# Entry
Amino acid sequence: MDESRPIFLQVAEQIENDIVDGHVAEDAAIPSINELAAFHRINPATALKGVNRLVEQGLVAKRRGVGMFVVPGARERLIERRRAEFAAEYLRPLIVEAAKLGIGVDELAGMVREERILT
Amino acid sequence: MTTTVVRARGLTKRYGSFTAIDGIDLSLEEGRIYGLLGRNGAGKTTVMQLLTGQIFANGGELEVFGRQPAEHADVLRRMCFIAEAQRYPEDFTPAHVFRAAPWFFEHWDAEFAERLIADFRLPVKRRIKKLSRGQLSAVGVIVGLASRAPLTFFDEPYLGLDAVARHIFYDRLLEDYAAHPRTVVLSTHLIDEVANLLEHVILIDQGRILLDRDAEEVRGSATTVAGARAAVEQFVAGRPVIGREGIGGLASVTVDGRLDHDERVRAAELGLELAPVSLQQLIVHLTGAELAESTEKEVAA
# Structure
C-alpha cells in the first residue's frame, strides 16, 4: 500500500483493476470486507469504505446474504472512464518531461511507435 | 449508529506540581480500533489508567459505558487492560494466567487462547519469572485478544516480540476483531507497523491532544517538498509548515494539508520533488523538537 494516498481509494482501485483486467468477471463476487482487510492487513472499516465507493459508483452491488457482485456493464464503464483520464494522467506528464529534454511531439510519437514494436 | 463508549471532558491528572494530563476531551466510539500515539512520557499510559479506573482524575468528567469507571464492577468487567509490564503472582505460569482469565472476562474464548499459545509457541508450564521478555509480552497479548472485552487496551503490548510474532498479533487482532467487533485502543511506538490497522488516531503530547482524527484523513495529509531552496520557498509560501530541513541551496519542507492535482503539476514544473509523509513521520514532525525550531524560524522570518 502506498502511504501517500488514502488506503480506501487504493482498495477501490485494485478491485477496479481486477474488473478491467477481467480477473473478476461481471456478475462474479468480489472478496468480502474481512478478506480484503486480512489480505491487505488493514482496518475492516477502511476496506468497507473502499468497497462502498464502488457501490456508490454503481460498479458493484450487494446481494443480500451472499456478498458484493460486479454489476453487468461495469467493465465497459470503467474503461470509458479511464480513457477519459488517460490524457491527464499519462500523456501530459510524458509531454512535459519530453519537452524538458528537448523531445518534440513528432519525435515522441516516433518513440512511442518504436516502443510498440519492441513490446 | 455508533455508540460512544468513552466520553471525557476536561480530564486532568496531576502528580504534585506536574500535570500529566492537561484537561483533555476525548471520545471513543464502539467497534473501532484506535491508535493512542505519542512520545515517551506524553501521557498515554496515564490516560489509559484513568479510563480503566486504576487512578483517579483531579478534574474533569469521565464516563465509560455511561458511568464512572472506578469502583463500578459492571464497567470494569467490560474492560481489559494489557499493561506494558504486567506483574503476576510469584510462581505463576502462563497456564495459571489463562485458567484464571475467565473469572475476569466473561467473553473469554479458551479455544482461541489455545490457538494463540500455539501461534506464539508459548511454554505455558514455565514459570513466568523464567520467561523471556517476548514470551511475557505474548502472555499479555493472548489475554488481551482471547478476553474479547468490549473495550480492550494494549499499552505497548509487544516489547521483545520479534517481527514474526508481531505480525501474528496484527493478523489475529484483525481476524478476531472482524468476527467479534469491539473497541480496541492500541498504544505503541511502532507506528508504521500498525498504521493500517487503525481507524482513528489520537496523538498526545505533554498531556494534551495534538491530533484526534480519522486515520484515513491523516494519511496523505502532509507532504514533504524538496528541491532548490528558492523554488521550495515559493511553493510553500502561505502554507502551514510543520517541518523544515536544508543544506546549502537545497531545502526540504513539510507542509500540512493535501495537495490537489494542479498543485502537483505546479510543483513538477518548478522542478520540486513531492514525497508522502507517513503517519510516523507526521508524528515525528508534530511532536519533535524540530517543530519548535521551525516555528521560531517562521516567527523570525
Observations:
- Confidence is low (pLDDT under 50) at residues 290-301 of chain B.
- Chain B has twelve helices and 13 strands.
